Please model this.
Amino acid sequence: QSVLTQPPSVSGAPGQRVTISCTGSSSNIGAGYDVHWYQQLPGTAPKLLIYGNSNRPSGVPDRFSGSKSGTSASLAITGLQAEDEADYYCQSYDSSLSEVFGGGTKLTVL
Amino acid sequence: QVQLVQSGAEVKKPGASVKVSCKASGYTFTGYYMHWVRQAPGQGLEWMGWINPNSGGTNYAQKFQGRVTMTRDTSISTAYMELSRLRSDDTAVYYCARGQQWLVTEYFQHWGQGTLVTVSS
Model:
């Protein structure tokens, strides 16, 4: 059981918008700790997509955006493309002095 | 450019230990924490802990305390993760990831290529 809860899967057609939620608790996201998001293509290392809730590293398309409210965070992907099909993970910090990940969400582009 | 190059795949028997290396280049090795994250087959990411290459200080996830040891050799800019008393459920890809401090937490912009550790009798 992951400390951060994500839906196992989401799907959308090309061009559509999808969101992936990441729900925590008062000891992590709700405590004010920021959330980061990663994309993982099959057989590769994770790639940083969003840091500090809503900041994109250089090179990440602005189709990807993040937000946080209360004990949850969300990753939104607009203008869905076939190449976005991947696993997505959220990450935050927990008061138990550890980094924590969500269980991951598989995005399928229909 | 930042590069993290890990050692090759390992096959170990239950009860044995494994030591994975992560050689860093393209930045000041002692300036950033090095984290270790593992991923079992078909499963999600699991944070194992970090080492401060400057001081050698460590912080391990509670789940791995007593079984994991993270060390470093600053002369060759290499971090190590040793996991002992291996079990079959330790079979996973182990990644090193350079931490980038963000307020209290850290995020991981640079990752090694991963090292598959298979535990099988």
Notes: The longest strand of chain B covers residues 92-102. The interface with chain A takes residues 35, 37, 44-47, 49-50, 59, 61-62, 95, 100, 102-109, 111-114 of chain B (CB under 8 Å).
